[in-house]
Amino acid sequence: MSRIPKYPVTAAKENRPGISNNRIISRTIGNGLSDVEKKNLLLNHTKPMNGTASNKVAAPRIKRSATAPSSATVPTKAAKVEKKTTTVAARIPSYDYKARFNDLVEKHKVIKSELSELKEKHLEISDEYEKVKDTVESSASERDALKEKLLNTYTELRKHSTDLESLKLDFELLKRENDDLHGKTRLLEDVTKSLKIKTSEYDKLKTEFDDLTRRYKSLSEEAEALRVLTDHLKKVSAEYDTLQINHKDALDTISKTKSDSEALQNILANMYKEQRMLRNTVQDLKGNIRVYCRVRPPLESESSKPLYNLNVLDACSMEVEKIELLNSARKGKSQHSFSFDGIFTPHASQEDVFAEVSPMVQSALDGYNVCIFAYGQTGSGKTYTMEGGNGAEKYGIIPRAIDMIFDCMVDLKRMGWELSIKASFLEIYNEIIYDLLNSSKDQESHEIKMVNSKCSDLYVSNLKEEEVKSSHDFIRLLIFAQRNRQTAATLNNERSSRSHSVAQIKISAINEKRKEKFTSNLNLVDLAGSESGKTTQRMDETKHINRSLSELSKVILSLQTNQSHIPYRNSKLTHLLMPSLGGNSKTLMLVNINQFDESFNETLNSLRFATKVNSCRTIKAKKNITMVDS
Ligand SMILES: Nc1ncnc2c1ncn2[C@@H]1O[C@H](COP(=O)(O)OP(=O)(O)OP(=O)(O)O)[C@@H](O)[C@H]1O
């Protein structure tokens, strides 16, 4: 507790403890304290002075700095008085009573004035005291009221405190509950999460389960099937055991059969060779140029045309007879007999014709050069005989020959022969060769040349040659060639009738086992119409046709009379057919005729030409077989 500064001795002599102090306190603290502090201070100092220090309410601390001015003020005044007295007193010697008296008087005066001053002050303070007393009294009642209020407030506070405590407890409880709930919520969230995971896992498992169920079902079915199979297998196994025993026996038989088969194959090959030789001997005996006559039936559109008499005497002889009208120049009966290697009546089918022709195709497969040609006037059925009509039944010699070649190829393969077939198609029109597999208008020129100086084989230069792997391949080429010929025919009026068409099939064969190989040519020729033309253009064509046909007859005649020189090179046709007509080849001519009265003379010409050809004897044909160079 700060000490209140002491008053000068004079002030203490007033013997007013507390009042003066109070006055000073109220004066000094009035400046730096708050209202509450002032009040507290007032309360403390208005309390009875007999109270012990411990009973006193602690007064607020008064800062030394705050009190300083008042404490300083009082000592300053006293110091002044002190100073005056000391100034006067100090100089008075003790023996100077007068001075001392004066001094005392002076002092008395000062003290007196001070006393009066103090009295005034006392009065002032008394007034103030009264006022303060009043204030203290009112403050006391106020304090009591406040005390009561405080008490009430305290009671209320205590009540509130209790409430607060219970509220705190409640809060605590609620907090705990809340925490509990939070925990539960978290737990619930965790449970929900894990539930979700479990649900998806469940879904997955369910799908898997369904899948497994399905698989189980199918596996069950498979198991059932397997069970059936197992039963079957058991049976089969038993059968297999039996079969194995049989198989062993069979193997023995097979190895035995194999050696037998090899022996038989050798026998077969030898027999085939012999058969081939016999076949060709028979053909040689029959002659290497063979002539057949085919009479075509009248078409529906020609049913009204008058016919001459045709009497087929036997398989090889026939008679043609025409009764000339009475007013005709050559009136009377005109009858002519002919005999050939065979005669095909109007009823003969394509199959019948091919049955006679097929040995020639067989000869080509045996390694001989073969030429089959159709001769006759326009419209006599040459193209029908060689190429045929639509439908397998109407197929002519060319498609049937290629079918036969590919059929025989299978048997030949069994005997160790590997065959390769090449085809080319050409046309000779006005002594010019045209490649029917080349559709371009500007073709390179084609010449007939020797394969080599040693042999008599010929080939046509710049001629397209296509390899054929099946009869279908060949037919495709034949159709292409026919179209090319037709296109040329439309550009060149009736050209197809006025040109020679040649289909060439080249057979190359090799037998590695027997070290044999051969190459043979099968020429299938549809000759131009043999009748004489009537128009100027036709005259020109006819000249060429007649020339080539007459050259053909000359060649045949030369061959017939064993001439040393055969004029093959006089025409493109005879030159091309040279290997087939003379020497090393077999030739078959089909002379085609119709039965119309109007064509009687042309028919006679054709039959006479065919007879000439038939009487031809070529030298014995030679096989082209050579040994493979080892
Ligand atoms: N044996 C036959 N049976 C049925 N119809 C035939 C027979 N021979 C020929 N024909 C038919 O007679 C017609 C004339 O035949 P094709 O065209 O073959 O004669 P062509 O001698 O070739 O004539 P071109 O010299 O003008 O070529 C054709 O319609 C043909 O179908």
TrEMBL record:
Q: What is its main location?
A: cytoplasm
Q: Which residues bind ATP?
A: 376-383
User: Which keywords describe this protein according to UniProt?
Assistant: ATP-binding, Coiled coil, Cytoplasm, Cytoskeleton, Microtubule, Motor protein, Nucleotide-binding
Q: Name one GO molecular function term.
A: microtubule motor activity
Pfam families documented for this protein: Kinesin
Q: Which residues form the Kinesin motor domain?
A: 288-616
Q: Does the keyword Methyltransferase apply?
A: no
Which Gene3D superfamilies does the protein's record reference?
A: Kinesin motor domain
Q: Which residues form a coiled coil?
A: 101-229
Which SUPFAM superfamilies does UniProt cross-reference here?
A: P-loop containing nucleoside triphosphate hydrolases (SSF52540)
Q: Which GO cellular component term is one of those annotated?
A: microtubule
Give the subcellular location.
Cytoplasm, Cytoskeleton
Q: Name one GO biological process term.
A: microtubule-based movement
What PANTHER family does the annotation carry? KINESIN-LIKE PROTEIN KLP-3, PROTEIN CLARET SEGREGATIONAL
Protein family per UniProt: Belongs to the TRAFAC class myosin-kinesin ATPase superfamily. Kinesin family.
In Swiss-Prot or TrEMBL terms, this protein is called (African queen) hypothetical protein
Species: Danaus chrysippus (African queen)
